[in-house]
Amino acid sequence: PVVLGIESSCDETGAGLVRDGRLLGHALASSMDEHARFGGVVPEIAARAHLHSFGPVVRQALDSAGLRMSDIGAVAVTTGPGLSGALQVGLAGAKGLAYALDVPLYGVHHLAGHVAADTLEHGPLPDPCVVLIVSGGHTSLLLVRDLARDPIVHLGETVDDAAGECFDKVARVFGLPYPGGPAIDRVAREGDRRAVALPRPMTGSRDAPYAFSFSGLKTAAARWAEQRRAEGGELPVADGAASLQEAVADVLTRKALAACRDHGVSTLVVVGGVAANSRVRELAEQRCRTAGITLRVPPLRLCTDNGAMIAAVGDLLVRAGAEPAPMDVSIDPSAPLEYAALNPVASRG
Ligand code: ATP
Ligand code: MG
Ligand code: FE
To answer: Which end of the chain is more exposed for a tag (fewer CB within 10 A), N or C?
Structure first.
């Protein structure tokens, strides 16, 4: 069947249509501009924007696929983690559609969506693979087997800020526009990545080899900016951005490769918004090539939040014969990533 995927956990309203691992069409609306003057996502504004965009985005996704409402055979929706009000709008809409069309509903974990995004471009994930999730709210190294069936093994995660959060916060200190990650990436092209000596947090940590910390790095970058400003003259933002990007990319790829090596895994998948970062991609490519590891990174449009990635998980669940979610299913704003879905297929054990 054609699976409609709905994403509304943060500031993007996304709808995607997937059948048999293939992306048929998708559409996206973002309320990013409405949050810009507040310097971060305002939950109430995000929820209202989802309410506004839900219908049009579903319609656009269908149009882009050349499909009709009646072609939808299942609905998958993000139930968490994310902003409560935002999630509720998406789930309510998805329930309405599933009810009206009399098709099964599947509850999907947002981060499993980020992982599955890559399957739409590169086909089924090898079992096992190491996945580096780097986004606005998460930085984790995972050991992933069968997304529809197996529990996800957490190798390590950030003890404080996420990598995307670090980019966003430092960008603000540097006076760059919101959202900070893409802005840092843009100006870093003109900068020298060796200009500022920034720390590589937790790279020496033997008892937590796959854990990350970005709050110290953020502070170090902010302190550098403060000092340079106190010395007078213009802040060399490009050098600061390039150096910060280098530090983040270095730590992320070093630990991801160590995880592959230590677990005898030959495929690394890098997903989430920060996987869009040009230096993260470049360094991951270089280091994987040297180590003989296959690297998979989804294309930019599938890295950041979208509905196609949720449809991709729904499609895996449908094909694996998972139980649909009950119609009284609710959201879980802080859902831990244990399984990709609310109702995974019973594990092979
Ligand atoms: P989560 O998925 O953890 O709930 P989220 O949905 O807000 O968080 P994503 O949409 O996956 O996160 O990613 C957004 C993050 O990615 C932001 O922090 C943004 O700054 C960052 N980002 C996007 N593009 C780039 C880029 N080119 N370089 C660095 N960071 C980027
Ligand atoms: Mg976003
Ligand atoms: Fe996300």
So the answer is: C
